[in-house]
Amino acid sequence: MAQTAVKRVEIEATSRLKELMRAYFLDLDAASKDHNRRVAWCTSVGPCEILSAFGFAVYFPENHGALLGAKKISHEIIPRAAGLGYCAEACSYMNSDIGCDLTDRSPLKQLYGIDGPPRPDLLVYSTNQCRDVQEWFQYFGQRHDAMVTGIRPPRHLGDVTREQVADVRAQLEQLIERIEIRYEQKLDRRLLREAVERSSRVSQLWGRVLETARHRPSPMTFWDMLIHMAPVILMRGSLEAIEYYETLRAEMEQRIADGVAAVPDERWRIYWEGMPVWPRLRELSEKFFDLRAAVVASTYCNSWAFEPYTGGDPLDWMARTSLEIFINRDEVRKERFLASVFDRFGVDGAIFHNARTCPNNTNSRYGMPERLRRRLDLPVLVLDGDLSDIRFFSTAQSMTNIEAFVEQLEGRK
Ligand code: SF4
């Protein structure tokens, strides 16, 4: 009998999550129509605490890129961006968001009854993840005649040095100054500190939610985490996100106490490296469920579990956090991190997603899977695909490869 015939236990907090997301997008929509409020667009690991301390309603377009992928719209609208000269192999979040702008096909309309993404007054990027975000924001800055600015931290770091932190801290100060001049408004440093304290708290709670998956059987999987990570990105400086992750964590701990498994009769524990395949989440989650394989940890969901803020200069914490994120580290640090997570979560194998349009968050291109396979004697599979553009992902081929991979695990048992 296929496992999918076995009933999944739904996560109860999901209904609260839906309420939070609705309130968040309705507020953004209201802010974009209110002459007394302003909207800032920010990259997902950008300096959003500064923006909320200035009073902006903060919107994260990468979330919209993921939504366009999950709703299977991206591949239809990316050609419109290509028509403007954006390479089809550049970031498919960026291309689909531009395509959405040109075709007016945002799923936010149907989901929340709003006009689509909020019109930006200001766009703030950090290139700690990639250059694409800068180009993406330049497009929308021109489109809406809005100021585009940001920070450019040093990339691909080994150990993060004090000099590098000081460099990014200085860039953050310059960013604050530019916003102060543009809007003739002084930043309230007390509000910034409070926003950083809440961000750190949300991030810590999210990290603890992820840690519950170390338990055998795991109370949640990567597929659940991808849904429940929204508040740590979109609302990470908010009290609502703190309350939400306290609730979710309590539910996961109760599952552990009650012996509730996300994958009944969990037989295999897998690590997912790289970006999700948003248009194929359902098919992939069902496949792993049927194979009794729990994907218990991932680089992607872990990317918003930062080191805690323990007081002192909030800009220093923001600078360090933006430098230390996994995507911004060199191969040696990444490999070391992955080996330690494989061990802590007791995984039987790892899957690396080679995302065609995101070389920045793909780690299968320079020998890492093979090095880890040899060093740890751990089965590894590389799946070719993309985060959002379905044209780069063969579902049939991928499912065959995943089945063969799990058979390989079986053979080693
Ligand atoms: S990290 Fe990858 S997916 Fe994210 S914005 Fe950059 S290129 Fe796109």
What's the topology here?
Layout: H1 14-33, E1 39-42, H2 48-54, E2 57-59, H3 61-70, H4 74-83, H5 92-103, H6 108-112, E3 122-126, H7 132-144, E4 147-151, H8 162-183, H9 189-211, H10 222-228, H11 230-234, H12 239-258, E5 268-273, H13 281-290, E6 293-298, H14 299-302, H15 314-324, H16 331-345, E7 349-355, H17 368-376, E8 380-385, H18 395-412
Parallel strand pairs: 1-2, 1-3, 3-4, 5-6, 5-7, 7-8
Helix pairs in contact: 2-9, 3-5, 4-5, 5-7, 8-15, 9-12, 13-18
The site of iron/sulfur cluster (SF4) has 12 residues, from helix 5 and helix 7.
Domain tally: 1
Unreliable residue runs: none
Bound ligands, each once: iron/sulfur cluster
Radius of gyration from the alpha-carbon trace, in angstroms? 21 Å
Encode the helix/strand succession as letters.
HEHEHHHHEHEHHHHHEHEHHHEHEH
- Content-based structural category: alpha/beta
Give the oligomer, counting copies of the same chain as homo and different chains as hetero. Answer: single chain
Estimate the helix proportion, in percent.
40-55%
Strand order of the largest sheet: 2-1-3-4
* β-sheet strand percentage: 5-15%
- Tell me the total number of β-strands: 8
Distance between the termini: 22 Å
Shape label: globular
> What is the mean pLDDT?
97
Structure description:
With 413 residues, the chain is of the alpha/beta class. The protein has one domain. It has 18 helices and eight strands. Helix 5 packs parallel to helix 7 and helix 13 (281-290) runs parallel beside helix 18 (395-412). It starts with 13 loop residues before the first helix and ends with a helix. The site of iron/sulfur cluster (SF4) has 12 residues, from helix 5 and helix 7.
